[in-house]
Amino acid sequence: MSTRPLSFSDTEPRPSQRILDKTRRVRASISMECPHCHSQVSSHAKHCKRCGGVIPASQHLLEDCGLTEPVRTAAPVAASAPSRSPAARYRFARLGDRFIAFGIDLTILFGLFAIADAWTFMRWSTFEASELQLTAASLLIAITLNSAILFLYSCLMEAACGATLGKILVGIRVVRTTRRGALAACAVRNILKIVDGLAFYLVGTAVAACSEARQRIGDICAHTAVIEESFGFAARAGAIVLWIGILSGSIWSVPRICTTSNPVPTRYLNRVLIRIGATGNSAYLRIAGFTLDFHS
Fold first, then answer.
1. pLDDT tens-digit profile of 105-120?
2. In angstroms, rounded to a whole number, what is the distance separating the alpha carbons of residues 7 and 4?
3. What is the model's pTM?
4. 8 A C-beta contact, residue 227 and residue 92
5. Is-contact 189 222, C-beta < 8 A?
6. Quick check: 243 and 213 in contact, CB under 8 A?
7. How far apart are CA 182 and CA 289, in angstroms?
8. How far apart are CA 65 and CA 60, in angstroms?
9. Distance of CA 139 to CAs 118, 123, 136, 208, 288, Å?
10. Domain locations in the chain?
11. CA atoms within 13 A on the CB side of 61
12. Residue 55 DSSP class
């Protein structure tokens, strides 16, 4: 019986050999993690293409054994910026700018107050010689009208334009930090001026100075804030025209209203509280038992 030596060409791969080859091919198509920069590299790579670090020969065995987590490819997710509240995107108005705007508004309001008060005193006050006697009824009506003018001016202007004439000229605006209606937010904000205005606005100023968003009590309750705003030339020019028009109208109309006296008798609140008159070269103001004289 003749025998011949076996060669490699005569042998067929064993089943274990085929499994090992298949495993190597699968491993070659599977990625693993670089131990240095944790980027995805091929399982048979010796160096990382990203950082250039040496990949240990047993790195893939660590992942196969579960000692390290293999890299899982996932759809790229865009990095989202941290969410911020709408008010965080604004520059809050300085307290000094708010006081300047309030001062400009006061000049406008004084003109409107003068017209309303002159009309009220000519109808619900009494005259005796050269003395004007202000009754409780006339003072109550005047205070009511002045409060209504102050509230409507601020509320309607801020709800419609976001700013009063003073705020437009200074460059600040009222914004809402929630979805509450503009008219409701401005109404709450201006009603609470009664609280903020205590002690010549010391309460509102102290609360706004301690607030990160510079909000007074009215702003906190109404969910509003005052921010810096750049108004256009047309808005500023319109505000200046209205400001001059209101002041000029009050200067023109108040003397004419005072020359037409048409008192209306009232059954209640007829007590005289304030007396204003003139004697010779002096004028006087009497409130209860207090008298203030003005000499020319």
1. 999 999 999 999 999 9
2. 9
3. 0.67
4. yes
5. yes
6. no
7. 47
8. 9
9. 11, 11, 5, 33, 14
10. 19-64, 91-295
11. 3
12. P
